Amino acid sequence: MMDPEERVLLHEPDLMLAILRVAAQGEGEGTLDACVAHLRALLRLAKEPAPEDEDALRARLEEARHRLEQARLIAPVNGERFRITPRGRSVLVENPRGVDDTVLMQFQEFRAAITPQERPAAPSPAPADYERGYAANLAGQGLADNPHPADSAAHLEWENGWSQARDDAQMHAGAAPLRPTA
User: Does the 4-118 domain belong in CATH 1.10.3720.10?
Assistant: First the structure.
């Protein structure tokens, strides 16, 4: 049996898209029950089995609904009802294949609402040892001049920097960069 997390139409972007589509229908309001019915209809069309654990599906829909509310794409109406916002309609039009956190991160309200653990990691700057290796190559040092123990991450970072400097110099000189042979 396929894991429910891996089923077609049941990934987070599909769940968020279902919520937005249900909310956009009719008078612009929806419920989780309507979302479940919408997903069941899509699964039937795709000839996929319905989820066995409807409670788990509802929990995942509730989490997706919460994230959409944080981004102000939907707003609670009363009880379990929610409505699509003008921002939600725009996102729905711009993202017809799915909505995920990469879409939601463009909204300040969403970024402010999520915890630091939920935020995507910022790209880290180039490691200092990489920069030192790059500089060592430019200064004429050889690969064997790596000052770090061979079984350390620092050794590999230095070597990567050194190698990149070598490749960059060869490219600027018009030669093809050296590639490892298999």
Answer: no
